[in-house]
Amino acid sequence: MQHLDLKVIERSLAWCDQGETVWLCTVLETFGSSPRAPGAWLCANARGEHVGSLSGGCVEEDFLARLGRGAFEAPITQTRYGEGEGAVANVALPCGGVLDVLVERLPSTPATRTHLSEILAALKGREPLIRRIDTVSGERAFIPAPPTGPRVEIEGDVIELRVSPAHRLVIAGISPITAPCAAFAVTLGFEVIVCDPSEATCQAFDVPGVEVHATLPSAFISDRTCHGATAVVALTHDPRIDDLAMMEAVCTKAFYIGVMGSQRTSKARAERLARSGGLSEADIARIHMPIGLALGSKTPAEIALAVMADIVRVQHGKALDEL
Question: Domain XdhC Rossmann: where (predicted)?
């Protein structure tokens, strides 16, 4: 849930600005069953306030209890939960899993603020970075990251943590399918932005955790808002909204672009986008239309499920014939 990780860094930076020390925890490795993947974050302050998660709750409880007793005062600490040598006693994970965690103590200094700001910028859409941490010296540095790769790599005393933009979903237009689609996306950890030109419709739209903009979606969509971890979907059946959104989306690095409609309307839209919008065959090939997996969906919630399932499929690089 990378959007949750974005919240972790935003809160860490806010605490730093308030003069508080921050403890940033990162899941390094997991063995067996584990609720969070390597690279997941949790941050906490000295009062025990925290954002993010490392497990289903037992690890967080132990960490915060130990923090309250004055543990983790070293700049870098590594700790293990679950079974095996060196694991914290009396903390068991589901199904016998094992969780290795890196704990960084970050005092409120200009250097800490600069470091957290670099992480935040990467999460919000700059090119991905690698945080290289020397666990002996405590030195931290950023290096450019390749386009793809694991979130965590460990080589001896050096840990490399990949920081990539949080997955983002931009929904063009508010329709009966928009709310369930946005709600599914929030649950999946996406940063969700909804755009619609109607001020009244935007004011009535209420899905927790969703950013709403009363503007024409095509005016909002740009490389600034649609980095390579962005999905753009148009869900209104109104070509004045959907077509313009598609024309702008294909000019971005968005990894998924889709628009709702039947096979017949999708064919007509492709012809219209080529004729009036000037889109090339390559541009049109990037657009998933009809949008979503063919689940036989009928209701708004079922259609939203099909849309998000297809986005997740593409996100993980799965071809349709692999399903």
Answer: 169-311
Torsion (CA) 260, 264, 267, 273 in degrees, nearest 10: -60
Q: Is the pTM of this model over 0.90?
A: no
Cite the residue boundaries of each domain of the chain with CATH code 3.40.50.720. Answer: 168-322
User: In the chain, at which residue ranges do the beta strands (DSSP E only) sit?
Assistant: 22-31, 41-44, 50-52, 76-82, 98-106, 129-134, 140-144, 152-155, 158-163, 168-172, 191-196, 210-214, 230-234, 256-259, 287-288
Q: How far apart are CA 97 and CA 95, in angstroms?
A: 6
β-bridge pairing 41-44 and 22-31: antiparallel
Domain 168-322 architecture: 3-Layer(aba) Sandwich (3.40)
Amino acid (1-letter code) at residue 184: F
SS3 label, residue 196: strand
A 10 A CB-CB count for 278 gives: 9
pLDDT at 125: 73
